[in-house]
Amino acid sequence: MPDYGSAGPSFLSCSDSRTLKEKLLNEGLAELVIELLKPPTKLTSTQLAKLAELIAEVAKCELGRKPLSDPTVLSTLLELLSDKDNQVVLQSCRALGNICYDN
Length: 103
Prior knowledge:
By secondary structure, the chain is mainly alpha-helical. The chain contains 6 helices and no strands. The termini are far apart. This is Rap1 GTPase-GDP dissociation stimulator 1-like.
C-alpha cells in the first residue's frame, strides 16, 4: 500500500479527482457504504474509521454529498460520534461535516 504521509491520499482531492469520484459513485460506492453500515455492522473500529474517512473524502465534492446523505449513513455516523475509538469519532465528525457542507 502506498504511503501518503500526513497529507492523506491526494487522489481524492476534489479538484483532481471528480472523474474518479463519479466513477466510484456510478459503480455503486454509495450503495456499498449503506450496506456496510446497516446494523448490525461487523466492522472493526479500524474499518469503521477508514469507512468514515472514505465517506468524508468523497463528500468533499458536491456530487458525493447527495448519495451519502442516506438516512442509514447519517444515523450510523451520528451513533459513531460516541464510539470509544478517537479515530472513529474524528472521521465520523469529518464525514458529517462534509456531507452537511453547503446542504
